[in-house]
Amino acid sequence: MKQYRMLIQSVLIVVLGYMFLLLPHIVLAQEGSEGRSVDQEFVFVQGKARAISLKNGTITVKPNKSKKIKIVIDAATTFKGASSLKDIEKANRVKVWYVLDGEDKKAVKIEKLPELGC
After folding, report:
1. Strand pairing of 93-101 and 104-112?
2. What is the pLDDT of residues 51-80, one digit of tens each?
3. Within 10 Å of residue 56's Cβ, how many Cβ atoms?
4. What topology is assigned to 43-112 in CATH?
Protein backbone atom coordinates (compact mmCIF):
# COMPACT_ATOMS: atom_id res chain seq x y z
CA MET A 1 0.00 0.00 0.00
CA LYS A 2 2.84 2.37 0.88
CA GLN A 3 4.59 1.69 -2.46
CA TYR A 4 1.36 2.31 -4.36
CA ARG A 5 0.87 5.65 -2.60
CA MET A 6 4.47 6.71 -3.40
CA LEU A 7 3.93 5.77 -7.06
CA ILE A 8 0.76 7.87 -7.25
CA GLN A 9 2.53 10.84 -5.65
CA SER A 10 5.48 10.54 -8.05
CA VAL A 11 3.23 10.41 -11.10
CA LEU A 12 1.24 13.38 -9.83
CA ILE A 13 4.41 15.42 -9.29
CA VAL A 14 5.67 14.61 -12.81
CA VAL A 15 2.32 15.51 -14.42
CA LEU A 16 2.03 18.78 -12.51
CA GLY A 17 5.65 19.61 -13.34
CA TYR A 18 5.02 19.18 -17.07
CA MET A 19 1.88 21.29 -16.87
CA PHE A 20 3.81 24.02 -15.05
CA LEU A 21 6.57 23.98 -17.69
CA LEU A 22 4.16 23.99 -20.64
CA LEU A 23 1.76 26.64 -19.33
CA PRO A 24 3.80 29.70 -20.48
CA HIS A 25 4.11 28.21 -23.98
CA ILE A 26 0.38 27.56 -24.21
CA VAL A 27 -0.42 31.13 -23.13
CA LEU A 28 2.02 32.60 -25.67
CA ALA A 29 0.61 30.45 -28.46
CA GLN A 30 -2.92 31.62 -27.70
CA GLU A 31 -1.91 35.27 -27.98
CA GLY A 32 -0.80 34.77 -31.57
CA SER A 33 1.18 37.35 -33.50
CA GLU A 34 -0.53 40.61 -34.42
CA GLY A 35 -3.88 39.14 -35.39
CA ARG A 36 -2.56 36.00 -37.01
CA SER A 37 -4.22 32.66 -36.38
CA VAL A 38 -2.59 30.63 -33.62
CA ASP A 39 -2.82 27.44 -35.66
CA GLN A 40 -0.41 28.78 -38.28
CA GLU A 41 3.19 27.64 -38.07
CA PHE A 42 6.01 30.07 -38.73
CA VAL A 43 8.50 29.19 -41.46
CA PHE A 44 12.01 30.63 -41.31
CA VAL A 45 14.27 31.54 -44.23
CA GLN A 46 17.64 33.29 -44.29
CA GLY A 47 19.37 34.56 -47.41
CA LYS A 48 19.90 37.57 -49.66
CA ALA A 49 17.20 39.92 -50.84
CA ARG A 50 17.03 39.40 -54.61
CA ALA A 51 14.04 41.59 -55.45
CA ILE A 52 12.04 44.19 -53.55
CA SER A 53 8.75 45.67 -54.73
CA LEU A 54 7.47 48.56 -52.66
CA LYS A 55 4.47 48.84 -54.99
CA ASN A 56 3.40 45.21 -54.45
CA GLY A 57 4.77 44.98 -50.90
CA THR A 58 6.93 41.93 -51.59
CA ILE A 59 10.47 40.77 -51.00
CA THR A 60 12.12 37.86 -52.79
CA VAL A 61 14.71 36.01 -50.71
CA LYS A 62 17.30 33.60 -52.11
CA PRO A 63 18.62 31.15 -49.51
CA ASN A 64 22.13 29.76 -50.09
CA LYS A 65 21.19 26.38 -51.51
CA SER A 66 17.54 26.72 -52.41
CA LYS A 67 15.10 28.39 -54.79
CA LYS A 68 14.00 32.01 -54.44
CA ILE A 69 10.98 32.65 -52.21
CA LYS A 70 8.58 35.55 -52.78
CA ILE A 71 7.11 36.83 -49.51
CA VAL A 72 4.27 39.34 -49.03
CA ILE A 73 4.64 42.17 -46.50
CA ASP A 74 1.51 43.48 -44.72
CA ALA A 75 0.67 45.90 -41.92
CA ALA A 76 1.28 43.22 -39.27
CA THR A 77 4.87 42.56 -40.41
CA THR A 78 7.49 43.68 -37.89
CA PHE A 79 11.02 44.75 -38.78
CA LYS A 80 14.37 44.56 -37.01
CA GLY A 81 17.48 46.29 -38.36
CA ALA A 82 15.23 48.26 -40.71
CA SER A 83 12.17 50.39 -40.09
CA SER A 84 10.34 49.20 -43.22
CA LEU A 85 10.77 47.50 -46.57
CA LYS A 86 12.17 50.80 -47.92
CA ASP A 87 15.31 50.32 -45.80
CA ILE A 88 16.16 46.95 -47.35
CA GLU A 89 18.14 46.87 -50.59
CA LYS A 90 18.85 44.17 -53.12
CA ALA A 91 21.69 41.90 -51.92
CA ASN A 92 21.12 42.72 -48.22
CA ARG A 93 21.22 39.65 -46.02
CA VAL A 94 17.89 39.05 -44.27
CA LYS A 95 16.08 36.63 -42.00
CA VAL A 96 12.36 36.24 -42.61
CA TRP A 97 9.71 34.45 -40.57
CA TYR A 98 6.49 33.90 -42.51
CA VAL A 99 3.23 31.96 -42.48
CA LEU A 100 1.50 30.20 -45.33
CA ASP A 101 -1.83 31.82 -46.21
CA GLY A 102 -3.30 29.93 -49.13
CA GLU A 103 -0.91 30.52 -52.02
CA ASP A 104 0.78 33.48 -50.30
CA LYS A 105 3.69 33.52 -47.91
CA LYS A 106 2.98 36.38 -45.49
CA ALA A 107 5.88 37.89 -43.55
CA VAL A 108 5.56 37.95 -39.77
CA LYS A 109 9.01 39.40 -39.08
CA ILE A 110 11.89 40.58 -41.26
CA GLU A 111 15.35 41.14 -39.83
CA LYS A 112 17.96 42.97 -41.89
CA LEU A 113 21.33 41.55 -40.95
CA PRO A 114 24.39 43.82 -40.58
CA GLU A 115 26.77 44.03 -43.50
CA LEU A 116 30.04 42.18 -42.97
CA GLY A 117 33.33 43.29 -44.41
CA CYS A 118 36.26 45.62 -44.04
Report:
1. antiparallel
2. 999 999 999 999 988 899 999 999 999 999
3. 11
4. OB fold (Dihydrolipoamide Acetyltransferase, E2P) (2.40.50)
